[in-house]
């Protein structure tokens, strides 16, 4: 059975069907989406182990005098990504089915389906052409989803647009350069040809465009500016996809093409056994996470805040990967997977909050937990994972990353990483407090209630996944072993036990630690409920220095501290981080604006022809450019 | 038989109470709230000369954590309102100490238009300390006395407040939520 | 700082959700008395303040009209609890002016000494509260226990620890007991030594200096305009002291060197150091006064005090208390009770009006510090 | 400048005032209602920049309130008290807010305790008293003892369990 | 097997709580003596905790309870991973990262619990606590990483055992700069002055604890004791050599706590941003300098 072809073609077909017939019917379109993702998921599952499996398509395109053969090759990394993408999209679809009843953006389902089918091209492409096609297929629909055809999201989506077009062009340039150098478009072949070259100026120029493309996609410093903006303007139920999946394609690209070539990087030599280029790039990862962490402190929009958190996590992943050690790669990939899970979960809870309250401003929220306990618990577990605290999955991958850094004796890097990792507490607690805790606003007291069960399903699944991976990291690490073998890394630290975390400086038995943790929790719980009684009091019956708040016109709105949490700190340090990069991209955005206005005019008048037409034109343009 | 079980339970309970009362009397948190001029004698008691902390008495910031409320002197109408609010916020068991003559009968402010005369009409007082203002020694001895009372389970002001809640509320309402002037011809 | 504040206020106006309230007092550990501010906050920055006074209002001015001239002496020390003597002296002096009584010289000196002692107790509390507001409790404990020595001296002299009711119309109640003077001189030496310790712990502490420096500064002209008096005014560099400008008791004979800091900035640090300098000066004044202490009676006979009538008239007396200008304006209609007594408390313009200017520029952690460096005393504006 | 000269100077400027010297550093100025703001402004410009307080006296027999502005000059070291009388039944007086900022709080206090209205003062809301319904307490015809007896004497402890 | 682990864990928990509260009690006594007071008896803290646990409590939402349980549970779990003279409930050797991140769950629980009480003073205090955490974690991490690098292990036990062979081999003699840096960081970790902004009573009415009555406060006190225990135990393991028995270990712990107390008694508190800057200059500078000396020179 032709798996990849089926998924791609089916995706395009379903997208068309939905767009043509069911655009107005949210339920049917989402059900189709769910069926599609579920079906693809099952198809993909069957491919585990068949790493030699490939699908080739005849083609009529000639490049110079080479006949191009489009081939989709099953590979471990792509498979894991694909499984996660379709699995997550499946549950996201379930969530959206409930979500969309009231807040629905019309074109999201067909475009999303298109993206999913495109992702197959990226993940399994054997050659650069398909990879690039998939890449562009991924970029454009996201722009339309983010923009939602609304004026108010225009400037935010323009950041995404400008940077990703830049990335796409860079990728094209890079592919062209590779082709020039190696006379082949096959990814694996070109890598091996490049590797056999001596480190030369060619490779130096080669890597830069690819870097730009992948770093833009993964929202790394200094291209991080699009991420928070795109997240905040995208529909609430699409944000999980951006954070959880889309930015990971950048990671995927790096693993696919940059990582094998790092030893040929533009700075020759090695440092502590790490290619010097890679060493500097792992510092780039650290800078990414520090900048994103500090910027997240002052964010008032919950989606933006979490987007910054995603950027910070991308920083960890990049750092780990660029260490180019087995442990580093392991940690990087493990953290990618963990981050996919917990960040999707976090964004889903945020979408649930948005669904019930209709605002993403944290200062306008508060006390939602009292009305949405399941959502709160999910969010809590999500942020514990995001902060890298023990019984959740975020800890396990962070442990490996730290071990990897220490293994290479990059002590300063470890200290800097600690900064970012501790900083995560600051903004995550702020989100926890401002959205879910504190005083509940009067306007939310009666109107807000828990989301329907359909929307809770992904939350439950997510909670179970986060905790079980946290306690049994082997659940993810074990299936990865073939992959590590496949990329030729010695599986020195990869363990066979389900509940052991590998490490160069020491291992950890997570199960035992979890038992101890559970013991302590049970002990304290017993202690708490054995001793004296407790009485419940209303929230405004609070310490007010002896004053009756009613006398001073102080209600719940006026008794909730949610804005300017780290004000003293921000005032001292934020200008330092905020000025330079943002200014640069603002100018960049200013010049791209004219271009954007032109596009905006096309789809402003609700003429949906514009969407497809533009995609079509661009694709023709790209192909045309290559053929010539 | 049932009676016996009931009695046994009460016995056990009172034995338990007695044990807990020992700890209660040895650890008293007082609310950090200077309601009147008597508060000026509290710092000396806390500092090295008398050092209240050696009896386990320590100041606490909020009514939630406090065990004793000190009404240090006269209570104006505004203060009594805040005292009641604060007192009701304190969790049981809690005790009130009335400082100085002003809390007993108004003291030298007996005819003042803004100082209430009899504090125990509004909140239950466990112990009064006379004097204007009471000397540190007398405050300390009052604290010791209160500890004794707590140890014996005698200081039950908070239960009195619960039992006579209506009565206290009536008095409080009469004072604080008035809608007509007390004296004739009091328009403005 | 001001820019930041206006920016925050703009944010608060645009989006009301960011504004919240903190009740600072009356039941707040940072509050040194039974009053309060309701602070409008954005983040940890105060942007507006609402007043919450009156918890200590006892209607003194009304009560004094209902009491005999002599009975009032039991009321007035309670106007300002930490520094009670200036009230007695001010009231007595005004009444003496009206009745045209010239009190004996020794009584004047005794008044001067007790006034300075009372000032010292108050300044000790003021210095200690700076420690309390910044968490340096040790200095507060030390100072408060040292303050007890002064209270003991008061007790020996007057029989009361806090409220002395020592002055009368026509002099003071009694002469110094035997041995008292030696003891007080000894005590002054003790305090002089102690000051070094205080300096070491409090005023030379880099964290204290860092926290106080530049906090809520005020210039001399502004201070005059906003009714700030006493040590707080002198901390801005204005050389003004009622003890010299409008002498009462024996201050026209005992030399007072007003301590003025060079390049005084009028910020919280200047105010805190001013308190310390005043304390040192008080020690000197007491020593000088004791040296110059004349012999003689301590009061004049005024007949049966219960039937005392003061001639018709009105007069004002201002007294330099540890917090600023304490003033008593007394109107007599010739009866056995005063017709009207009006009290001018030094804390009122600062605690109830200057706060509107100063607090919105500072952060929540400095509110208590601001209050303590201005040594705001709640009973004197509630009365 | 001696206080006598000073008063003569003021009198030259405002001939309709009455003056009185209490002692060598204290003087009183009696002024009729509508001109007192000019005098206050003049005095402030003549270095009487410190307004110690504003207080009122209730001359109930004469059916008049007397508002006193207690001034002090840091330069001449002289205290001057400006006294303004207004009728008791029409207790209204323009505010001195434009001359001294902190007059606001004093006026608020006087308003609360005497019921005198200061025209032009934006905030005269009650500050010290709780839920006050009676006569302003500092007026001579307010009987504090009767009030106290009525309000605070709750009687015997009846109705208590 | 698992019962043995749990039994051991239970006994260690009892010991940790006992020592923690005892330290707090002795600490109160010592502070009192510096302030020229007599001070409460050394067992005062036990009386306080028992009284508080027997006192009626007020709660606003079950999240408050969850937070309280998470706070103490997290810290006890942390304490069970710090070797006490080599004793651990199971052979984990005291993994450093686990200890650092597990203690965070305690603080997160506390933060969540107090936030759920709905008082703005509480999050104000938590905001400061977290800023301070950002301040002290970095120098502390720098110091930890030095020793991890030296011993090639991320376990406390290995680091403690690497100092065997007399007092001259103890890390605080061999790496004095790191010791001073860590001492300052631990001062902040224990929230002793000058780093007690989060509970500053005069500023934010004791911050996080503002709405914690009765048994919540009792658990909070136990938590404070446990955290004092953990922090002193970490420093003891890092710097004060291998300990032969529990008594030896506890005495060393007390030495660390004693230094902290003495500094605490004579210091006012920083403003929060100054505290962070201070922590990032002096202790971090010392840590990095030590790192430079150790690994580069």
Description:
The complex is a heteropentamer of chains A (628), B (188), C (383), D (161) and E (297). Chain A contains 22 helices and 9 strands. With 628 residues, chain A is mostly helical. Chain A has a two-stranded antiparallel sheet. Chain C has 2 domains: 2-52, no CATH class; 60-346, Orthogonal Bundle (Cytochrome-c3 Hydrogenase, chain B), CATH 1.10.645.10. Chain C has helices at 2-14, 60-65, 72-75, 85-99, 105-134, 137-158, 180-203, 206-212, 220-225, 231-234, 242-245, 268-292, 347-358, 367-373, 378-382; strands at 19-24, 36-42, 45-52, 167-168, 171-172, 313-321, 324-332, 340-344. In chain C, the strands form 3 sheets. Chain C has a 3-stranded antiparallel β-sheet. A 3-stranded antiparallel β-sheet of chain C has the order 6-7-8. In chain D, the strands form 2 sheets. Chain D has a 5-stranded mixed β-sheet. Chain D has a two-stranded parallel sheet with strand order 6-7. In chain D, β3 and β4 (64-72) form a beta hairpin. Chain D is elongated. Chains in contact: A-B, A-C, A-E, B-C, B-D, B-E, C-D, C-E. Chains A and E meet through α14, α15, α16, β8 and α20 of A and α1, β1, α3, α4 and α5 of E. β9 (534-536) of chain A pairs parallel with β1 of chain E, so a sheet runs across the interface.
Order of helices and strands of chain B: HEHEEHEHEHHH
Average of pLDDT of chain D = 82
CATH class of chain B: Alpha Beta
Helix content of chain B: 40-55%
Biggest sheet strand line-up of chain D: 1-2-5-4-3
> Could you estimate the helical fraction of the residues of chain D in percent?
25-40%
Taken together, the total number of domains of chain B comes to 1
What series of H and E elements makes up the topology of chain D? Answer: HEEHEEEEHEH
Q: How many beta-strand elements of chain B?
A: 5
Greatest chain-chain contact:
A-E, 76 and 86 residues
Distance linking N and C termini of chain B: 70 Å
Concise summary:
The complex is a heteropentamer of chains A (628), B (188), C (383), D (161) and E (297). Chain B is mainly alpha-helical and 188 residues long.
């Amino acid at each position: 059975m032709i798996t990849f072809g089926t998924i791609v073609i089916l995706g395009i077909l379903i997208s068309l069907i939905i767009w043509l017939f069911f655009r107005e019917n949210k339920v049917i379109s989402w059900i189709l989406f769910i069926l599609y993702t579920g079906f693809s998921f099952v198809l993909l599952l069957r491919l585990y182990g068949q790493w030699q499996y490939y699908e080739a398509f005849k083609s009529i395109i000639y490049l110079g005098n080479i006949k191009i053969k489009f081939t989709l090759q099953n590979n471990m990394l792509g498979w894991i990504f694909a499984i996660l993408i379709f699995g997550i999209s499946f549950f996201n679809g379930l969530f959206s089915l409930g979500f969309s009843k009231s807040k629905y953006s019309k074109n999201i389902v067909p475009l999303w389906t298109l993206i999913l089918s495109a992702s197959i091209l990226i993940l399994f492409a054997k050659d650069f052409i398909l990879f690039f096609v998939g890449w562009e297929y991924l970029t454009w629909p996201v722009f339309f989803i983010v923009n939602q055809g609304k004026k108010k999201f225009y400037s935010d989506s323009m950041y995404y647009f400008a940077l990703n077009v830049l990335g796409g062009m860079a990728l094209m340039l890079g592919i062209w350069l590779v082709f020039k150098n190696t006379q082949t478009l096959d990814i694996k072949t070109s890598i091996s040809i490049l590797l056999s070259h001596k480190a030369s100026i060619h490779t130096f120029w080669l890597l830069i465009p690819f870097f730009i493309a992948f770093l833009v996609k993964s929202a790394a410093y200094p291209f991080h500016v699009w991420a928070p903006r795109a997240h905040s303007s995208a529909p609430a139920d699409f944000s999980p996809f951006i954070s959880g999946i889309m930015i990971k394609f950048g990671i995927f690209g790096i693993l696919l093409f940059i990582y094998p070539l790092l030893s040929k990087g533009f700075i020759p030599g090695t440092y502590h056994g790490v290619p010097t280029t890679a060493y500097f790039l792992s510092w780039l990862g650290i800078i990414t996470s520090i900048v994103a962490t500090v910027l997240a402190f002052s964010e008032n929009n919950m989606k933006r805040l979490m987007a910054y958190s995603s950027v910070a996590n991308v920083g960890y992943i990049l750092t780990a990967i660029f260490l180019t050690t087995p442990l580093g790669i392991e940690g990087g990939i493990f953290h990618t997977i963990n981050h996919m899970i917990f960040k999707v979960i976090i964004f889903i809870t945020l979408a649930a909050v948005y669904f019930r309250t209709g605002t993403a401003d944290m200062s306008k929220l508060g006390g939602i937990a009292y009305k949405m306990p399941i959502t709160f618990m999910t969010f809590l577990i999500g942020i514990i994972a995001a902060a890298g605290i023990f019984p959740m999955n975020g800890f396990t991958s962070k442990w490996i990353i730290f071990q990897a850094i220490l293994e290479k004796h990059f002590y300063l890097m470890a200290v800097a990483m600690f900064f970012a990792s501790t900083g995560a507490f600051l903004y995550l607690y702020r989100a926890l407090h401002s959205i879910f805790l504190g005083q509940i606003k009067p306007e939310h007291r009666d109107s807000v209630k828990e989301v329907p069960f359909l929307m809770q399903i992904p939350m439950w699944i997510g909670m179970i996944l986060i905790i079980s991976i946290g306690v049994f990291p082997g659940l993810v690490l074990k299936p990865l072993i073939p992959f590590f073998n496949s990329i030729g890394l010695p599986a020195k630290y990869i363990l066979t036990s389900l509940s052991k975390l590998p490490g160069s400086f020491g291992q950890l038995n997570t199960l035992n630690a979890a038992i101890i943790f559970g013991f302590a929790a049970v002990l304290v719980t017993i202690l708490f409920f054995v001793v004296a009684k407790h009485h419940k009091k209303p929230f405004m019956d609070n310490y007010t220095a002896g004053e009756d708040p009613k006398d001073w016109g102080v209600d719940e709105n006026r008794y909730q501290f949610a804005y300017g949490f780290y004000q003293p700190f921000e005032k001292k340090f934020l200008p330092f981080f905020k000025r330079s990069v943002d200014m640069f991209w603002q100018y960049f955005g200013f010049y791209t604006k004219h271009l954007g206005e032109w596009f905006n005019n096309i789809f402003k008048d609700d003429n949906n022809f514009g969407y497809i037409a533009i995609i079509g034109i661009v694709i023709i343009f790209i192909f045309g450019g290559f053929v010539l | 038989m049932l009676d016996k079980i009931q009695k046994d339970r009460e016995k056990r309970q009172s034995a338990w109470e007695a044990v807990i009362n020992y700890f209660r009397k040895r650890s008293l948190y007082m609310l950090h709230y200077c309601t009147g001029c008597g508060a000026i004698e509290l710092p000396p008691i806390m500092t090295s000369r008398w050092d209240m902390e050696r009896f386990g008495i320590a100041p606490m910031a909020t009514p939630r954590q406090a065990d004793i409320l000190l009404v240090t002197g006269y209570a104006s109408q505004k203060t009594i309102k805040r005292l009641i609010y604060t007192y009701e916020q304190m969790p049981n068991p809690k005790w009130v100490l009335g400082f100085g003559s002003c809390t007993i009968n108004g003291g030298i402010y007996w005819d003042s238009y803004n100082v209430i005369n009899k504090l125990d009409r509004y909140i239950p007082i466990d112990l009064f300390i006379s004097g204007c203002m009471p000397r540190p020694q007398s405050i300390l001895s009052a604290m010791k006395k209160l500890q004794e009372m707590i140890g014996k389970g005698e200081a039950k002001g908070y239960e009195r407040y619960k039992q006579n809640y209506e009565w206290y509320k009536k008095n409080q309402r009469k004072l604080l939520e008035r809608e007509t002037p007390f004296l004739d011809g009091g328009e403005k | 700082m001001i820019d930041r504040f206006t920016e925050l206020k703009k944010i608060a106006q645009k989006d009301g959700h960011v504004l919240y309230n903190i009740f600072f007092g009356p039941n707040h550990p940072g509050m040194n008395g039974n009053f309060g501010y309701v602070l409008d906050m954005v983040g940890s920055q105060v942007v507006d303040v609402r007043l919450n006074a009156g918890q200590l209002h006892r209607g003194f001015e009304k009560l004094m009209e209902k009491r005999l001239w002599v009975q009032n002496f039991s009321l007035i020390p309670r106007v300002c609890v930490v520094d009670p003597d200036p009230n007695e002296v001010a009231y007595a002096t005004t009444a003496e002016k009206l009745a045209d009584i010239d009190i004996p010289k020794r009584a004047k000196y005794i008044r001067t000494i007790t006034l300075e002692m009372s000032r010292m107790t108050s300044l000790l509390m003021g210095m200690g509260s700076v420690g309390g507001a910044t968490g340096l409790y040790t200095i507060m404990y030390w100072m408060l226990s040292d303050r007890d020595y002064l209270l003991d001296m008061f007790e020996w002299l007057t029989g009361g620890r806090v409220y002395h009711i020592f002055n009368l119309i026509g002099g003071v109640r009694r002469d110094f007991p035997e041995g008292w003077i030696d003891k007080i001189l000894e005590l002054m030496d003790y305090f002089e030594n102690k000051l070094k310790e205080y300096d070491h712990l409090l005023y030379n502490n880099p964290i204290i200096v860092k926290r106080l420096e530049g906090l809520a500064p005020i210039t001399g002209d502004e201070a005059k305009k906003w009714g700030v008096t006493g040590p707080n005014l002198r901390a801005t560099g204005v050389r003004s002291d009622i003890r010299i400008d409008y002498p009462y008791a024996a201050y026209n004979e005992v030399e007072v060197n007003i301590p003025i800091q060079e390049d005084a900035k009028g910020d919280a640090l200047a105010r805190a150091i001013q308190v310390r300098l005043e304390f040192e000066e008080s020690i000197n004044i007491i020593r000088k006064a004791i040296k110059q202490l004349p012999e003689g009676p301590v009061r004049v006979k005024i007949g049966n005090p219960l039937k005392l009538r003061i001639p018709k008239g009105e007069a004002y007396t201002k007294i330099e208390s540890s917090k600023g200008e304490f003033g008593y304006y007394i109107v007599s209609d010739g009866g056995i009770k005063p017709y009207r007594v009006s009290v001018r408390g030094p804390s009122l313009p600062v605690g109830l009006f200057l706060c509107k200017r100063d607090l919105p520029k500072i952060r929540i952690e400095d509110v208590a510090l601001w209050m303590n460096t201005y040594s705001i005393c709640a009973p004197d504006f509630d009365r | 400048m001696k206080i006598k000269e000073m008063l003569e100077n003021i009198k030259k400027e405002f001939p309709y005032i009455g003056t009185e010297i209490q002692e060598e550093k204290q003087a009183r100025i009696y002024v009729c209602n509508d001109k007192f703001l000019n005098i206050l402004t003049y005095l402030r410009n003549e270095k009487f920049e410190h307004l110690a307080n504003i207080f009122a006296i209730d001359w109930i027999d004469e059916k008049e309130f007397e508002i006193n502005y207690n001034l002090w000059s840091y330069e001449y070291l002289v205290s001057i008290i400006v006294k303004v009388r207004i009728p008791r039944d029409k207790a209204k007086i323009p505010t001195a807010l434009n001359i001294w900022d902190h007059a606001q709080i004093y006026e608020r206090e006087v308003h609360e305790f005497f019921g005198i209205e200061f025209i032009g003062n934006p905030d005269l809301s009650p500050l010290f008293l709780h839920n006050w319904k009676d006569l302003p307490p500092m007026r001579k015809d307010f009987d504090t003892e009767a009030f106290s007896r009525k309000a605070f004497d709750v009687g015997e402890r009846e109705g208590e369990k | 097997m698992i019962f043995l682990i749990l039994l051991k864990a239970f006994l260690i928990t009892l010991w940790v709580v006992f020592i923690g509260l005892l330290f707090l009690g002795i600490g109160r006594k010592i502070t009192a003596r510096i302030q020229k007071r007599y001070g409460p008896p050394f067992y005062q803290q036990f009386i306080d905790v028992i009284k508080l646990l027997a006192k009626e409590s007020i709660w606003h939402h079950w999240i408050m309870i969850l937070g309280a349980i998470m706070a103490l549970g997290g810290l006890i779990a942390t304490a069970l991973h710090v070797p006490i003279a080599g004793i651990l409930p199971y052979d984990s050797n005291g993994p450093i990262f686990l200890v650092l991140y597990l203690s965070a769950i305690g603080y997160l629980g506390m933060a969540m619990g107090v936030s759920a009480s709905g008082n703005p003073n509480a999050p104000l205090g938590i905001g400061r606590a977290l800023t301070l955490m950002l301040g002290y974690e970095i120098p502390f991490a720098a110091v930890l990483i030095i020793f991890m690098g030296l011993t090639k292990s991320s376990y406390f036990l290995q680091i403690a055992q690497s100092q065997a062979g007399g007092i001259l081999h103890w890390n605080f003699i061999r790496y004095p700069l790191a010791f001073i840096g860590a001492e300052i960081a631990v001062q902040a970790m224990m929230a002793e002055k000058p780093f007690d902004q989060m509970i500053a009573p005069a500023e934010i009415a004791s911050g996080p604890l503002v709405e914690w009555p009765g048994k919540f406060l009792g658990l909070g006190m136990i938590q404070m004791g446990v955290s004092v225990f953990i922090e002193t135990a970490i420093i003891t393991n890092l710097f004060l050599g291998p300990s032969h028995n529990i008594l030896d270990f506890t005495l060393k712990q007390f030495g660390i706590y004693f230094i902290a107390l003495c500094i605490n008694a004579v210091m006012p508190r920083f403003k929060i941003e100054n505290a962070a800057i201070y922590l990032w200059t002096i202790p971090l500078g010392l840590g990095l300098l030590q790192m430079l000396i150790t690994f580069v020179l």
